Amino acid sequence: MASGGCSDGQGPFGGDLIGANPTDRGKRGVKRSLLVEAGGGPLAVVVAGANVHDTKLLDATLQAVVVERPQPTAEKPQHLSLDKGYDNPTGRQAAADHQYVSHIRKIGEEKQDEQGEKRHPARRWVVERTLAWLSKCRAILVRYDKKARNYLALLQLACALVWYRRYNRLQLLR
Question: What is the pTM of this model?
């Protein structure tokens, strides 16, 4: 006889790691946190419920990097560009814990300085472009998997596909 609760290994109806989306009338959804290199190649991906704040996912995303990082030095520091959503002590501390030099625009700060020039150019479009590349895979655009680990595996496979396509494109140019 079936019980009303979830047994071991089963998620609630709709799956695990799903939360109410605050921007879409409370519909349940998933958030993908992505770390990319300067050219848009994905380095790490993490899945959480849509109601989880970005700064809570930053530490998990930085830990999920699949390639070995070179050790940062004083001559060659590693930079991490983040948007205003990470402008709080949690986001800055997570970047410092992983030895990144964080570039986070402060909330309320104007986009231009006194001379009318941008100090740090916006790089959010690199992440958005990579998310668009990943959204071309139809199984990722809408989460059909009940278990989060299956959805995460599809995301990681799509990231590998992005790297494969980039590698082949570079081979054709040579």
Answer: 0.79
